[in-house]
Amino acid sequence: MSFYPGKVIITGEHSVVYGHKALLSALSLGVTCEVESSSGVVNHATTDPYLKHILQLCSRELGVRDIETTLTLKITSTLPAKSGLGSSAAVAAAVITAVFEYYGQHLSSAKLYPLVLEAEQYVHGRSSGADPSIVVHGGSLLFQQGVTTPLESDFLTKQTFALVDSGAATESTGEMVALVAHHPEREALIVAIGAVSEAIVSQLQQGKYPVSLIRENHLLLARLGVVGAAAQDIIEQLWRMGIVAKITGAGGKTSGSGFILAWHEDSVFLREQVNRLGVSTIITQLGNNRGKYNEN
Fold first, then answer.
1. What percent of the chain has a predicted confidence (pLDDT) above 70?
2. Which of 152, 186, 221 is the last residue before a domain boundary?
């Protein structure tokens, strides 16, 4: 059985695609995959195009034919899809690891990462590689142009966060990336987000949650057009409560924008206030989880 966590992006949405720094943290939520012989029975779950692609990738790398008809996958996920929480990368990592282990091959993080990246590119198009990186490595890390660096401070792991659901995005991550690519102010806004991200990371390294910078990050993402009306309304309510909030992930325009990452220094106050919103909310910690394989 294999498990890999989902993720949140603290800062760097979309700017990471253009080579700027992003800060990501692993969640306790994630995807588990168990593999067993199907005795020749077709696994109906693999009619999903993404799963079929992942298994074909495994067949190619392992040199084993007909994996999708010889194995049965049992996939359990606590990550909602189209939520900005890295579900597609977590599915790929969990399935690939479990299949390789079934055939007696252990994958190191260095070997797993490019395979998860390839799977991500199938489902999302152009991928920065950030989601596969945090899903594979876990913890909290800085990602820039394929290079990962663990966050030096343990500040994030000691905080309580809320994930507030603004609704699933109608658009895929690839569609949101394409939308940003055609934004008339893209270059200036991407550079601004990159600069804010650098400042946010600096503050977190010093053990401070940069409230004003997180707000600035949100406003830049809104100008970029990746924050839908539903998410914007929730974020404004949270800010009026004194809670720091922003989207986490590619966002969404026409309906929901996935989950919103919310923080307050008083965790009791945070819980009480987000419960007043009347929408699905998850209370969580960040950066404590890593992927694992368990033979039992």
1. 96
2. 152
Residue spans of the chain under pLDDT 70: 39-46, 293-296
Q: How many structural domains does the chain have? A: 2
Taking each helix axis as running N to C, give the angle between helix 49-62 and helix 109-124, from 0 to 180 degrees, rounded to the nearest 10.
Answer: 140
Q: Do both 9 and 129 map to the same domain?
A: yes
Tell me the residue range of the domain where 131 lies: 2-152
In DSSP notation, 185-225 reads THHHHHHHHHHHHHHHHHHHHTT---HHHHHHHHHHHHHTT
Q: Are residues 95 and 162 in the same domain?
A: no
Pair (238, 111) in one structural domain: no
Write out the catalytic residue numbers.
131
- Residues 6+ positions from 255 with CB-CB distance below 8 Å: 167, 168, 169, 170, 228, 230
Strand order, beta sheet including 259-263:
244-247, 259-263, 161-165, 281-284
Between the CA of residue 217 and those of 203, 267, 271, what are the distances in Å?
14, 22, 23
Residues 40 and 52 in one domain: yes
3-class SS shares of the chain: helix, strand, coil, % to 5: 45, 20, 35
Q: Give the count of alpha carbons within 13 A of 213, CB side only.
A: 19
Taking only the tens place, the pLDDT of each residue in 27-47 is 989 999 999 887 655 454 557
Contact criterion met (CB below 8 Å) for 165 and 259: yes
The whole model's pTM is what? 0.90
Helix, strand or coil for residue 55?
A: helix
d(Cα 54, Cα 94) in Å, to the nearest integer?
A: 10
Residue 127 confidence (pLDDT): 74
Are residues 167 and 133 located together in one domain of the fold? no
Q: The CATH number of the domain where 113 resides is what?
A: 3.30.230.10
